[in-house]
Design brief:
The protein is mainly alpha-helical. The chain is built from twelve helices and no strands. It is globular and about 50 Å long.
């Protein structure tokens, strides 16, 4: 995580040279690099968290992480606008680079013991290193295949990835064509989504210690999908974005519940040595199925219509919630019956 932050710091510095529209390729290169480096940070963060808090507090800890992300989504654009008006793009780049530096320093002082199952020999050749990476990746996939909880959530992850890809392509056309909104209305809806995420983080942080993760995931995912169905279809009986704004705030609660309980289920059913590579595999799978969702949206929206296709985003979490409950309910019931009283509460 420290190395990732330092690489993110270095990767944004080329924007200091950006001056004209002909250098747009530079912006794309920086965006690509930052996204690629970020793929190393998220699995490490999710893998480390269970080593910092007790099992019964994992849902709340994941909810706090979600709170940080949503606060950044809400506050970041405002700060960026203020900084760019005062110091221009270079000022934004410098401030952004400093945030990565501060994050790296803060993470450096976290004291936690965490080792992979197999340590990589630092003196190994490049060929041996690649062989080790391939072997660990294969071991991670084997772990997913043989662990019922992880295997089930892997399928849920793929379903939600398809939905995310669909809405990523069709959200703007939905707002402009179906809701007849403009850029300002789009901004309002995105802000409402961030506010809903903040509200959801507080609610789930409180509920998380009082509900088993599987039950929280099932209820949250189904509510997530049902509210999305209302968002995508209310224009059939009402106009404007007022209802949409309210629904976007409300859906933030089950969205946070879905993803925090999802992470918690993985964190509590994957041992520390495999946790990072499993989260990495899940992130890759989510991205691959998001691309599939984008292809579905791009190829079918014109012929079928925006609303029917964007409803895939609503159906996906409902299907994931039902799948998790049907596939894992008996497993968790047996686990609770055989667990000790202390573990039973967790």
């Amino acid at each position: 995580m420290v190395i990732a932050n330092l690489l993110l710091l270095l990767s944004i510095l080329p924007l200091l040279a950006f001056q004209t529209a002909q250098q747009l390729w530079l912006v794309m290169l920086v965006a690509f690099t930052q996204s690629a480096v970020g793929q190393f940070f998220a699995p490490a963060e999710n893998a480390m968290l269970p080593n910092l808090v007790h099992k019964e507090h994992l849902v709340s800890a994941n909810a706090l992480n979600a709170l940080n992300n949503n606060l950044a989504r809400l506050i970041g654009p405002v700060l960026g606008g203020i900084i760019i008006s005062i110091a221009g793009l270079r000022g934004v780049v410098v401030i952004d680079a400093l945030t990565y530096l501060v994050a790296a320093v803060l993470i450096f002082f976290i004291s936690v013991t965490s080792q992979p199952v197999q340590a990589t020999d630092s003196s190994a050749s490049i060929a041996q290193a690649f062989k080790t990476v391939f072997q660990q990746w294969r071991e991670g996939l084997q772990f997913i295949r043989h662990n019922l909880v992880v295997r089930t959530m892997f399928i849920c992850n793929a379903l939600m990835g398809i939905g995310e890809g669909v809405v990523g392509v069709l959200f703007v056309p939905f707002v402009t064509t179906v809701l007849h909104g403009e850029a300002i209305q789009l901004g309002w809806l995105m802000s409402a989504q961030a506010v809903g995420g903040i509200l959801g983080s507080f609610v789930i942080g409180w509920v998380g210690s009082r509900m088993l993760p599987l039950r929280l995931f099932t209820i949250s995912a189904i509510l997530f999908g049902l509210i999305d169905l209302l968002i995508f279809n209310y224009s059939a009986f009402a106009s404007g974005i007022g209802i949409g704004l309210v629904l976007f705030v409300l859906v933030g609660i089950p969205v946070i519940g879905t993803f925090t309980s999802f992470n918690t289920l993985l964190q509590t059913h994957v041992e520390d040595g495999y946790r990072g590579r499993v989260f990495g595999a899940f992130g890759t799978t989510f991205a691959i199925f998001s691309v599939l969702g984008m292809q579905i949206a791009g190829s079918m929206a014109d012929s079928v219509g925006i609303v029917p296709i964007i409803n895939i985003q609503a159906i996906a979490p409902i299907a994931a919630g039902l799948l998790a409950w049907i596939g894992l309910r008996q497993y968790f019931a047996k686990t609770l019956l055989t667990a000790q009283p202390v573990a039973d509460k967790a």
